[in-house]
Amino acid sequence: MTNSDDVRGGAVLSPRIIFIWRLVQLIVWLIGFAIFFLLIFNPAVGLLILWNILIPVAPALLVVATGLWRNICPMATTVLLPRRLNMSKKRKMTPLLQSKLQLAAIVSLYLIVPLRHAIFNTNGLATAGLLFGAAVTGVLMGFRYDWKSGWCSSLCPIHPVEKLYGASAATTLPNAHCDRCVKCSVPCPDTTPDFHPAITKKNKYQIWSGLLTIGGLPGFIWGWFQVPDHTGANSLDLFLKAYQYPFFGFLASLLCYVLLRKLLEQNRDRLLISCFAAAGVSCYYWFRIPALLGFNHIEQDGLLLDMHGILPAWSISLLTILSTCFFFWWLVFRKPVQRSWVKRPVYA
C-alpha cells in the first residue's frame, strides 16, 4: 500500500486503498455484529468467541500493531457513523473535558473488568447489554463531538491500554478513518510518535490518568487472574470478591511505580513506563495461555481448547516464558522507535 503526500505534509490515500480499508472495516464490523447476535441468541458460542478468542488476541495486537486495531475496531466504525453521515455537530472538545473523560476511561476499565468474573464471563445477555451501552454512548458522543474525540481518544476504556502497550508499534499504517485532520484531539494519539500515558501532564486529570494506567495495570491484571468466575452471581458478597484481588494488586503495583519513579532519575521515566507496560502484558499471557489450553490454576475458567493430557505441562511453561521474553524485548530492550500508530492526514 502506498500513499502520496499533500503539500501540507499529510498522507493522502488513493481511492483504491480507501476502498480496501473500508472493506476490511466492514468485514470486522460484521464479525463484531455476529458476536453481538450470538451473545443474545447463542450465548455459549458468543461468550467463547468474545472472551476466549477475540480478547486474548487483543493485547498482543495492541503491542505490535496498535494502528491496525485503531483502523479496524468495530466500535470505532460504529461511533464514527454520525461524522461519516454528516450528522455530527462537529463540536470541538476542550482539552480539559477530554482529559476528564480520559481519566473516566481508565476508572471505567478498573470498574468493569472485575465484573467479568461476577457476570459478564458467563452471561451472554449481560455482555451484549454492556457492548450495546458502550456503542450507544459512543454514537451519542459522535453526534456532538468531531471525529475520534468523542469516544476513541477519550471515553473508550480500551484507549488507556492502547496508550500503554502501543508505544513501540512495528509499523506506521495509513489512517483509515480520518481523511482530513481537524485537530479533534491534541495531541493526537494516532499520529503522535512515541505516544504513551504520561506524554501529557498539563493538568491533574492527565497526571492521574497516566499514573493510574501505568502504575496500576500490571498489579490489577495479576489480581484479576486470582479470582474465579461466579456463574449466576447474585449476592453483594460475590460482587465484592470480584474486586478484592484486582484492587489490592492495583494498589501494590501503583505503589511500586510511585516509589521507583522517585528513586530513579527523571530521564529514566520512559524506560520505567516501558517496563510496566511489558510487565502488564506479560502477566496477562502468563495466566491466559495456560487457561486457554486447559492448564488453568482456577478450574476451567477461560478454557478454549483442553490440551491437558495431550501437551506436557513443561511446554505450557515454556510458552509463557517465551511470551514474557518477547514482550520485554519488544517493549524494553529493543532499540527505541519514534513511530506513530498511523500517518497523519492532511490538515483541513
What report would you give on this structure?
This protein has 348 residues and is an all-alpha fold. The protein has 13 helices and 4 strands. The chain has one domain. It has helices spanning 15-41, 43-64, 66-72, 74-79, 81-84, 95-112, 115-120, 124-144, 159-165, 204-224, 236-263, 269-292, 313-333, and strands spanning 4-5, 11-12, 180-181, 346-347. β1 and β2 (11-12) form a beta hairpin. α1 runs antiparallel to α2, α1 packs antiparallel against α8 (124-144) and α2 crosses α3. Mean pLDDT is 91; it is low at 1-8.
Task: Note the topology.
Layout: E1 4-5, E2 11-12, H1 15-41, H2 43-64, H3 66-72, H4 74-79, H5 81-84, H6 95-112, H7 115-120, H8 124-144, H9 159-165, E3 180-181, H10 204-224, H11 236-263, H12 269-292, H13 313-333, E4 346-347
Parallel strand pairs: 3-4
Antiparallel strand pairs: 1-2
Helix pairs in contact: 1-2, 1-8, 2-3, 2-12, 6-10, 10-11, 10-12, 12-13
Q: Give the termini separation.
A: 23 Å
Trace the largest sheet across and list its strands. 1-2
Computed CA radius of gyration, to the nearest angstrom = 20 Å
Structural class estimated from helices and strands: mainly alpha
Helicity level, as a percent range?
55-70%
Q: Overall 3D geometry?
A: globular
